[in-house]
Write a structure and sequence with these properties.
binds zinc ion, alpha+beta
């Protein structure tokens, strides 16, 4: 099967919800994958995906999108308020919105004389000479100590040629006096057309005006007056073109919103304008400076309306809105509305801090990308309250919550220094810098234990904390619904992270899927996100699709995610072996199938994954999907990597006649991985079988056996094979590798006799034999058992137990 073929089918299944499959055709019905979070229907009523309140599902075509405050609720800004108080702020309105007693009489006089120029000069002079704490919201991307002073920032950057060069490169890519402006690869000369549609960025992205950050940084570094002039030019061009930016359809977007006047764009851009006004102010003409004040005032009012009229929604947009509105108020207390903005911002920020950060430290949107972005917003907000308003109370109350937030990132980080990019997130090493700064801030040397190889010995020696390994290796996050298995904090550690969560904003359509790393290389990868993010043509059809994930699919259909988390969880992290299991009902509604996945981790050796399907339907297809950057070749019962360091994947030897093995390819995000491009097609292995509608046979057992060196692993001897048990209520497999044979039994907790040498009332039993003699065993939920080779067990209550000779 070719990728193109599968993708076209994936697209078809996305757009058409087949009500019922024709005979002999696979039932691929299921939910439609969408880019955005969209309203959902129960009976006749539509609901908001985030707050779940009933909403209308109105077609917004023809509406003035500038007035539309929410993606899901039909709440709008009143038209005249938008015109007079937001978009076209007159001098009179600006003066009335400011409370500056020292120049108030002069301003009134200039107003009466209709002397706009005089008003500009008065305001310019005032803002240039009044005190400013020189702490900015945004610096370069490496800055993780938010709201440090400009001087501290410069000191840091000047000591780091990599950062200095990155700023210079970025600033000069956007503008040089000789060449003029260049944006997203398009050379504009002296005038940018802000209505242009770029191939690599959405129009919303364009209007964040992200280039401003490094223009500001470059100016701080060089004090080159040409940079200030370039800002003045580009800002006025943008301002003058505001009304001529055309609405147009954007790939994957079902419901549009205005490119300029929408929540996230305003929250992002306004924060930059506040920085720009404070840094460039003295170098701008009084007229431009007044325009900046007007756009900051109008934008803040738009954001204020948004918080006033939209319900609380646990996600990033509203959090950034609460922050930016607060920053406008703190940086410009002269605005008469600033006290109200501060109070509203605080109310929402507290709601987000308490709800969006889970008690286990994970973030509500279940992606490392949005989590680290929101960390920066929360942290900024606390420090801003302290530095601008002399109010340390938010920091004092919520800092422990942020510490837990970082702890979550640390404990989920892969052994090779990248994050595992579940859901809408890119892979990369960005978190390493964050861990470094936060280890100093929180005095937590354990934040760096897992990434110490990513930092130079000079950097490590310069830190005021002693680097040590985290006290925990494997951990379950019951609120965020991720689990991590690892055997050490070495870069070569075996590592698996598995997702068992339900739908949230920015989640993909994956169920019980995982990433695996071992011996310093990636073994099983999530596709991550495309090169062009949400405007990548494959974003919906591939990156969000179940087939791009290391999971079991039924008929290659899309499973449900909303309200379909993993349940009946087992989590037993023992010393030598770990057990995890969960069931999900993502395929229950359409394919009438239930999937239970058991993961057995024999530390430093292998994973055995047992997938059981409970369905009465016959002839549905069960696929075990695995994506790997290793180059795989078929062997008996499975595949092996061609690389010397790699892995073997095999299924139950007795299933081989019923299982079709397929090798395909699919694109994946490989950013941050050694010797890999940002994206490429990687191997996609599929084990496929027809379901019989009989739980006794509808299962697969897959062994994932990594090796540091193929030659020394004696891989030709490795097999997994089911065992016939005396008691058919349980299932068992043996994993044979070199001189060892492990028996794994999955039972129901009733006392049963499984083989001639094993009986007991455990749920999971693992028995490891060397040359035929038992030398290790592990149990979950055991109170009684009799096993040849160890003494009988008898406990008053059920417990976990490990035996080691
Ligand atoms: Zn809502
Ligand atoms: Zn994904």
């Amino acid at each position: 099967m070719r990728l193109g073929h599968l993708l076209s089918f994936a697209l078809i299944s996305t757009w058409f919800l087949a009500a019922a499959a024709a005979p002999n055709e696979l039932d691929r019905s299921g939910p439609a994958i969408t880019l955005q979070s969209v309203v959902y229907q129960v009976g006749d009523q539509w609901h908001c995906p985030l707050c779940r309140q009933p909403v209308e599902n109105r077609d917004r075509f023809g509406m003035d999108l500038k007035l539309c405050l929410s993606e899901w609720h039909d709440v709008f800004i009143e038209e005249t308020y938008f015109k007079d108080k937001i978009r076209y702020i007159s001098d009179e309105e600006l003066v009335a919105s400011l409370s500056i007693p020292v120049i108030e009489p002069a301003l009134q006089q200039a107003l009466q004389a209709a002397d706009g120029k005089r008003i500009s000069v008065l305001l310019h002079d005032y803002f240039l000479t009044r005190p400013d704490n020189r702490r900015l919201s945004t610096y370069d991307t490496y800055n993780r100590k938010y709201f440090i002073t400009i001087d501290e920032f410069l000191q840091e950057v000047r000591a780091d040629s990599h950062r200095t060069n990155a700023i210079i490169r970025s600033a000069q890519t956007f503008y040089t006096p000789e060449r003029g402006f260049t944006l997203f690869g398009v050379h504009w000369g002296n005038r940018i057309d802000f209505n242009h549609t770029y191939r690599t960025a959405s129009k919303w992205g364009v209007h964040y005006l992200s280039f401003l950050d490094d223009q500001i940084n470059y100016f701080l570094l060089t004090r080159d007056p040409q940079t200030a002039r370039a800002f003045e030019l580009v800002f006025n061009q943008w301002y003058d073109q505001l009304d001529s930016v055309q609405q147009e359809p954007v790939i994957h977007y079902q419901k549009s919103y205005d490119f300029i006047w929408y929540e996230l764009g305003l929250a992002n851009r306004t924060q930059k304008f506040i920085d720009a006004a404070r840094v460039f102010g003295g170098h701008l003409s009084p007229e431009t400076h007044k325009r900046l004040l007007k756009i900051i005032l109008g934008s803040s009012r738009w954001l204020e309306q948004c918080l006033e009229k939209t319900p609380f929604h646990p996600y990033n947009w509203q959090t950034h809105t609460a922050f930016t509105l607060s920053y406008a108020a703190a940086a410009f207390p002269e605005f008469a509305e600033s006290d109200g903005w501060l109070a509203l911002g605080k109310k929402y920020m507290i709601l987000h801090l308490e709800n969006d950060i889970r008690d286990d430290g994970g973030y509500v949107e279940r992606t490392p990308g949005y989590a680290s972005y929101m960390f920066s917003v929360f942290y900024r907000y606390m420090m801003m309250r302290e530095y601008f308003l002399n109010d340390p109370s938010m920091r004092q109350t919520y800092l422990p919550r942020l510490e837990k937030f970082i702890e979550y990132f640390v404990l989920t980080q892969t052994p090779v220094g990248v994050n595992a990019p579940f859901n809408d997130a890119a892979r990369g090493k960005d978190l390493v810098t964050l861990f470094k700064e936060m280890s100093v801030f929180f005095r937590r040397g354990d934040f760096l234990g897992g990434v110490r190889n990513e930092l130079s010995s000079e950097t490590l020696a310069s830190l005021p904390v002693a680097v040590r390994e985290p006290g925990i290796t494997s951990i379950d996050f019951p609120d965020s619904r991720f689990v991590v298995m690892r055997d050490s904090w070495q870069p070569t550690s075996y590592y698996l992270m598995l997702n068992y969560g339900e739908w949230q904003n920015h989640t993909h359509y994956d169920q019980l899927d995982f990433e695996i790393y071992a011996n310093g290389i990636p073994i099983a990868l999530d596709a991550g996100i495309g090169r062009f993010g949400y405007v990548d043509t494959l974003h919906v059809s591939w990156y969000k699709h179940p087939l791009a994930h290391n999971m079991v699919t039924i008929n290659q259909a899309v499973p449900e995610k909303r309200d379909r988390p993993g349940y009946d969880k087992v989590w037993a992290p023992l010393t030598n072996v770990e057990f995890f299991a969960a069931t999900h009902d993502g395929y229950l509604k359409y394919q009438k199938a239930r999937h239970r996945r058991h993961v057995v981790f024999a530390k430093k050796r292998y994973w055995l994954i047992i997938d059981q399907i409970h369905t009465e339907r016959k002839n549905q297809e069960m696929d075990f999907n695995l994506h790997t950057p290793c180059s795989m070749t078929a062997v008996e019962d499975g595949f092996i990597s061609l690389e010397e360091t790699g892995f073997l994947i095999k299924q139950d030897h007795q299933d081989a006649p019923f299982v079709e093995k397929i090798k395909d390819k699919g694109i994946a995000d490989l950013r941050g991985l050694e010797a890999e491009p940002s994206h490429r097609d990687i191997d996609w292995l599929i084990f496929r079988r027809k379901l019989q509608g009989d739980p006794a046979v509808d299962r697969m057992a897959t062994l994932i056996y990594p090796f540091a060196s193929k030659a020394s692993a004696a891989v030709e001897t490795v097999t997994v094979e089911r065992q016939a048990l005396q008691d058919r209520a349980a299932i068992a497999y043996t994993v044979t590798a070199r001189d060892r044979q492990d028996l794994i039994i999955v039972s129901d907790g009733a006392y049963r006799r499984f083989t001639g040498s094993v009986a007991g009332d455990f749920t999971y039993g693992w028995f490891s034999y060397r040359d035929g003699r038992l030398d290790a065993a592990a149990f979950t939920d055991v109170s009684r058992c009799k096993v040849k080779g160890m003494r009988s067990l008898s406990f008053k209550t059920k417990r976990e137990y490990e035996f080691k000779k």
